[in-house]
Predict the 3D structure of the following.
Amino acid sequence: MKNQLCIPSVGLGFWKIPNASTAELSVQAAKLGYRHFDCASDYGNEPEVGQGIEKILQDGLCRREELWVTSKLWNTFHRKEHVRLACERSLKDLRLDYLDLYLIHFPIALAYVPFEHRYPAGWYFDPESAPPKMIPDPVSIGETWEAMERLVEAGLVRNIGVSNFGVSLIRDLLSYARIRPGVLQVESHPYLTQTKLLRYCQQEQIAFTAFSPLGAPSYVSLGMAKASESVLEQPDVQKIAQQVGRTPAQVVLRWGIQRGTSVIPKTQTVQRLGENLRLHDFELTEQQMATIGQFDRGQRFNDPGAFCEQAFGCYYPIYE
């Protein structure tokens, strides 16, 4: 990043991890060597991640300064008076004094939902209304970002950044930001390489984190992808896996970090936790990298322009 800090190249993403297994999974991950935990209030399991982190530190598996913990500002807290409240709630749930990184989760501002009404707030303003809908709130990114900067100045957050932003939004943000975004987190995998966006971030020294780095498998259970759309089933990926003696998933994750991104795969099994972390003792050749890069077809699985209308009654495109 611009401030010379480095984000660990492989992290554990907690999206869709069941609450009942989250704390123990956190501890097992730390025992295997994970030092990068990617969280968000919207995932609904930050209290359990906090339990895991507390045990990790109590058991001496690592020191707090060796952990990189990310959380994210949810859409309903974009107004300046709500940003700190949201951050402090995540800190309380995670049992931490500070976050290493706090991201604006989406460039989507929704009407405020107080904690006492519902937390996490989710996408609907009122799930009991007929029909329930998202309610957009006209809040500028500038207002939200200024409040994010104050979190850094207050010592609650070490770094701030954005998620699901494109080049134009980032360029505009850089024109007025007093504290530059240190990280961009976006969906990226061989079917969505985001090559221009990655190059722009590298030019601006903004670290690039790829969520859903394996693509379709994260979305099959949600009905947002088909199992047949998995890049892991590509014959060329399986061939490369045989050539390097690794699993197809390890090959795709290695492709991600070798091209200069950090990756945050999600898994619930200890075996795959270990596999996903073992990426630094082999390399792909230039030809193997190029072969995987040629799978790009601009296929986005996590698109508010599609799922918001289908699931939450509001057409809200952000990438067009």
